[in-house]
Design goal:
Length: about 375
C-alpha cells in the first residue's frame, strides 16, 4: 500500500471515530442591488464520508482568501480520491475509488456552484484514483490503484461519459497505476504503472478526433522508487513526477524531457530528494517554480525550474510548512492560481492552506486567515478553475 493511501486511510479512520475537523466587478443592472462576481474557484475531492463530497470555494483574485460557495459541499460517490476540471465546458469529474465510478458536475461560471450531470455517476471500477480530461473537453481517461487498467470515455454534449469499449490493460505484469497525465496538446498520454517496488512510465499516442489510444513503440522509462503523481510543464516539453522511497524513506522528484515526434521520455533532472510521501506536484503559471506537497512530514518542497533544460534548484527556505491544523495535517493535494500569485494546498486536517508566491525567489508565505475550512472531510485532491 502506498504511503499516501495509508495516510488517507488514517484520515478516514479519524473521521469515523470522530476526529475534529480542524477587484471584483459589479452588475450593471440598475433594477436590483449590485451582485459581486467572484474571481476564481477552488474544488476539492473529499475522500471520507458516505457519500463522499466535493467542496467548492470562491477565491479572491487579489488576496487569495477563500469563502465557501452556497450549497457546498456536494455529494459525490464513495471514496472521492481525485478530480479533474474541464475548463472548456465548465465541468468537474471526480474519481470515486470505493464505489468504483466517476461523478460529473456542471459548474456555474459566475458563481462556481455545482450541479450533477444527468446520469452521474458513471461506472468504471473499484480503486479508480486518477483521471484527466483532454484539452478539448471531449474525452476523459482514468486509471485504478487496484489494477493495470486504463479507461477511456467520450464526453457527450450534456457532460455524460460513454466508455470507449473495454479498458486497456497497460501491461499484464503490473498491479496498479498511480497517476495518468496528458501533455498540453493532447497528443500523448502517460500512466505511472507498477507494483509496490518499481514503476515505469507507459506512454500512448492519442487520436485527438476519436480518443483512441495506441501504445508507444519506445520502451517505457523506469522510475526511481514508486511514482505517485505527475504533471507536465505548461509548454509540454517536460514531464515532472514524484515518487516514494527514492532516498530511503524520503521521496524524490524527477524530470523527463518529451520528444514531441516519438513520445519518448528522457531523464534530464533528478532524482532530487524531497520530503516523505510526496502526494502532489504543480508548476506556477509561468513555469518558473515547481512545488511538491509532502504528506507525511507536512511540508512543501519548492524549486526554481529552468524551462529550457528542465533542471531544478531548491528555493531558499524550502521545504516550507504546509500549514494544516491538528495532529494529522499533511497536505494531500496542491495547485496554483492562473495568475501565478498563489499556491493552494488541501490538508488532511480538513482545511486548505493558501500561500503567496514571491515572484523573485519562489518562497511561500501563508496569507492572512490561512488555513481556511474545506467544508468536507479528508480532502485528497484540489483543482483551481479560473
Amino acid at each position: 500500500m502506498r504511503w499516501t493511501k495509508f495516510w488517507l486511510f488514517l484520515v478516514l479512520l479519524g473521521a469515523v471515530i470522530g476526529m475534529p475537523a480542524c477587484g471584483s466587478f459589479f452588475s450593471t443592472c440598475h433594477m436590483c442591488p449590485p451582485v459581486p462576481k467572484p474571481g476564481h474557484f477552488i474544488y476539492t475531492a473529499n475522500a471520507a464520508g458516505n457519500p463522499s463530497t466535493v467542496s467548492a470555494l470562491s477565491t479572491s483574485p487579489s488576496t487569495g482568501a477563500l469563502s465557501p460557495i452556497s450549497g457546498s459541499p456536494y455529494n459525490a460517490g464513495s471514496g472521492s480520491f481525485a478530480l479533474t476540471a474541464d475548463l472548456i465546458n465548465h465541468r468537474v469529474y471526480v474519481a470515486n475509488s470505493l464505489s468504483g465510478d466517476i461523478s460529473a458536475f456542471d459548474l456555474d461560471p459566475n458563481t462556481g456552484a455545482m450541479s450533477k450531470v444527468l446520469g452521474s455517476p458513471f461506472g468504471s471500477e473499484a480503486g479508480v484514483d486518477s483521471l484527466v480530461v483532454s484539452p478539448d473537453g471531449a474525452f476523459v481517461y482514468a486509471v485504478s490503484g487496484s489494477s493495470a487498467n486504463l479507461w477511456a470515455f467520450s464526453i457527450n454534449s450534456d457532460g455524460g461519459l460513454v466508455a470507449l469499449g473495454s479498458p486497456i490493460v497497460i501491461t499484464p505484469n503490473t498491479a496498479d497505476s498511480g497517476s495518468v497525465v496528458m501533455d498540453p496538446t493532447g497528443k500523448y498520454l502517460y500512466t505511472f504503472t507498477g507494483d509496490s517496488f518499481t514503476t515505469s512510465a507507459y506512454g500512448f499516442s492519442r487520436n485527438t478526433a476519436t480518443g483512441a489510444l495506441t501504445p508507444l513503440s519506445v520502451p517505457p522509462p523506469a522510475i526511481a522508487g514508486v511514482a505517485n503523481r505527475g504533471v507536465f510543464d505548461r509548454t509540454g516539453n517536460f514531464l515532472l513526477f514524484t515518487g516514494n522511497n527514492e532516498f530511503g524513506t524520503h521521496g524524490g522528484v524527477e524530470v523527463f524531457g518529451l520528444n514531441g515526434l516519438t513520445g519518448a521520455l528522457t531523464l534530464v533532472s533528478g532524482p532530487i530528494q524531497i520530503g516523505d510521501d510526496p502526494s502532489g506536484i504543480t508548476t506556477d503559471a509561468s513555469d518558473k517554480y515547481v512545488y511538491v506537497a509532502n504528506t507525511a512530514d507536512a511540508t512543501i518542497s519548492a524549486f526554481q525550474f529552468d524551462s529550457a533544460s528542465g533542471a531544478l534548484s531548491a528555493v531558499t527556505g524550502s521545504p516550507f510548512p504546509s500549514g494544516g491544523k491538528g495532529n494529522i495535517n499533511g497536505p494531500l493535494g496542491i495547485t496554483t492560481s492562473s495568475t501565478g500569485s498563489f499556491v493552494y494546498v488541501c490538508n488532511a486536517s480538513n482545511d486548505i492552506s493558501v500561500f503567496t508566491i514571491n515572484s523573485a525567489t519562489g518562497a511561500l508565505m501563508p496569507i492572512s486567515g490561512s488555513p481556511f475550512p474545506d467544508g468536507g472531510t479528508g480532502p485528497s485532491a484540489i483543482v483551481f478553475v479560473p
